[in-house]
Sequence to fold (191 residues):
Amino acid sequence: MKKTSAVLVAVLGLVCFLMAGNMPCAAADTAAAGISNETDIKQIEIQIGDAVFIADLLWEDAPKTCRAIVGILPHESVTYHQFWSGEGLQVHDETLKTMAREHGLWPSPNFPDYGENPSIYGTPGEVGFYAVGNGIFLTYGKSRFFGPLDGAEATYIFAVIKQDLKKLYVLGKHIGRHGEQRFVIRAHKPK
Fold:
């Protein structure tokens, strides 16, 4: 069985290498982690700088958003403080923009998608996908998801951090005062 798994990982890696122009592929990473189905991933790790937080995925509340996020794991970017929405962090990049289009999270005339746990308020530890701006929002305190042109804008809450909220709060305030930090999101492998 291990030999078959190793072959599968190698084949997936080669296919991704050829299709993505030498870029690694989330499917190969998922297979290497021993995950056969994307919904097998129940938790994600969110690393900001040196701090690591574990978040539970909300598959029943936001299935399309969870599937989209799991499909890009592992993902590395930078996070910085929210400009309009209060006590939260945000991540925006081209990978998230492409992910939104490919998974139907792009705002449409039907926005917001009420099957994806939309909220205009964030509470500490909530992790959401902001479809209007194609970004991940991570709330560490009081937050109201707000854009400069349209006012309150729904964010799809897809995960929640339940532990180390005080550490998250201190880190959020630090980023607000001192600037961006490295951001990595990956599948959590329970020990």
